[in-house]
Structure formats: structure tokens, C-alpha cells
Write a structure and sequence with these properties.
Oligomer: heterodimer
Largest sheet of chain A: 6 strands, mixed
Number of helices of chain A: 0
Number of helices of chain B: 0
Shape of chain A: globular
Shape of chain B: globular
Helix content of chain B: under 10%
Strand content of chain A: over 45%
Structural class of chain B: mainly beta
Distance between the termini of chain B: 36 Å
Chain lengths: 119, 114
């Protein structure tokens, strides 16, 4: 079974600075996808960034980038030039296209990290 | 606008009173699922459906039922709610080629069972 662990329950950062959120996962699959979701106070789940395991290049989306270390099973999210609107709960999630049965299409989530951006 | 809708958004009920949370998507997605979110546990899958009339259990199915009679709708049924089902519930949908396609989440339903 796949597991996803976020070891930082809470993080804080000053506006305009950079912060990194950690995520580790465990799987025996070789082909999988990793995601970071943002959940602001509105509770809406917003996809921030996606990484495909077979791609060596780290994904980037504007101020958001990941450090994907496949051998270490690590997938951290870096937010540059933090903004007040980045304040949210962030979830790391995993899924595998090869998973069958009850794991098909399932997203396995970490526990979440609450990020607060201070002015 | 492509979206997943859930109703109600908030619900307070009493133990044992049957309730249904509706979920509807307008993107012609085959795959739909329900998750519950609890503090310190993240989101966990309750049930999923790969197409009409095809449903199966996720990680935490006890106390829940689902049905998929139409492609767009995937209601979550709590026949005898208990306080341990107090949680934030999300419906999600995607094309069947998940995970290559993004899963779209509904706005969430906050359920309190007293």
C-alpha cells in the first residue's frame, strides 16, 4: 500500500520570502504521479503542481516548484516570493496508473501542512 | 463552466437520521469518488465509481453507501449517521484515464452528527 507523509504540521513564512514544504512517500510502483494541492480557508481543493515519476525534470508553475527525488521518495514544494494569498493548508498526494482494484484512480494524501504567510 | 457541485454545503443532523449528500459533475467524467477529510489524517477515499452502475469501496467505506445510476451523479448515503462520521466530505471526478487527467473536486460538505 502507498503512504504519503508530511512531517510539518505547520509552517510560517514572511511575505516575499521562500518556503519549502516537505513530503515523503512509499510505494513499490515505478510509474506514478505526485501532486500538491492547496486548500485555502474556503476549503476548495486547488491543484498547484503535478509531477510525473518518469520525468526527471522537476515541475514548475510560476512561483511554485518541486524538488523530486525519486530514489529518496521525496517530493518537496518550494514557494518563492510568498504572498498573503498563499496562506492555506497544503496536501501532498500520490496516485499510480498501474494500481488496480481499490487503488485505481485513488489519490493517497498526506496529513497536510498549514502554511501561514505573514505580512 | 466545468464544475463539480455538492449539496448541501453544511449539514447538522442527529445520530441515526438518514441523509444523502449529492454530487454532480458536468464534464462527462467516468470516474467519481468520495473522500472524507479529518484533522491529522488528510483525505481518505470512501467509495469510488469507474462508470455507471460500477462502484467499489475505498479505504473507509464503513457506514456509507453510494449509487451511480447516471453518469453525472454520485450521491453519498449515510443510512444511520454516527458522531464519528462528523467530517468534511469531498466529491471528485475525472476522466477514466486518471491519473493522467486532473481530478476535479467539489466545494466540500461540512457534516456534523450530534
Amino acid at each position: 500500500a502507498q503512504t504519503v507523509t508530511q512531517s510539518q504540521p505547520e509552517m510560517s513564512v514572511q511575505e516575499a520570502e521562500t518556503v519549502t514544504l516537505s513530503c515523503t512517500y512509499d510505494t513499490s510502483e515505478n510509474n506514478y504521479y505526485l501532486f500538491w494541492y492547496k486548500q485555502p480557508p474556503s476549503r476548495q481543493m486547488i491543484l498547484v503542481i503535478r509531477q510525473e515519476a518518469y520525468k526527471q525534470q522537476n515541475a514548475t508553475e510560476n512561483r511554485f516548484s518541486v524538488n523530486f527525488q525519486k530514489a529518496a521518495k521525496s517530493f518537496s514544494l518550494k514557494i518563492s516570493d510568498s504572498q498573503l494569498g498563499d496562506t492555506a493548508m497544503y496536501f501532498c498526494a500520490f496516485t499510480s496508473p498501474n494500481a488496480g482494484g481499490t487503488s485505481y484512480g485513488k489519490l493517497t494524501f498526506g496529513q497536510g501542512t498549514i502554511l501561514t504567510v505573514h505580512p | 463552466e466545468a464544475q463539480v457541485t455538492q449539496n448541501p454545503r453544511y449539514l447538522i443532523t442527529v445520530t441515526g437520521k438518514k441523509l444523502t449528500v449529492t454530487c454532480s459533475q458536468n464534464m462527462n467524467h467516468e470516474y467519481m469518488s468520495w473522500y472524507r477529510q479529518d484533522p491529522g489524517l488528510g483525505l481518505r477515499q470512501i467509495y469510488y465509481s469507474m462508470n455507471v452502475e460500477v462502484t467499489d469501496k475505498g479505504d473507509v467505506p464503513e457506514g456509507y453507501k453510494v449509487s451511480r445510476k447516471e453518469k453525472r451523479n454520485f450521491p453519498l448515503i449515510l443510512e444511520s449517521p454516527s458522531p464519528n462520521q462528523t467530517s468534511l466530505y469531498f466529491c471528485a471526478s475525472s476522466f477514466r484515464t486518471a491519473p493522467r487527467n486532473e481530478q476535479y473536486f467539489g466545494p466540500g460538505t461540512r457534516l456534523t452528527v450530534t
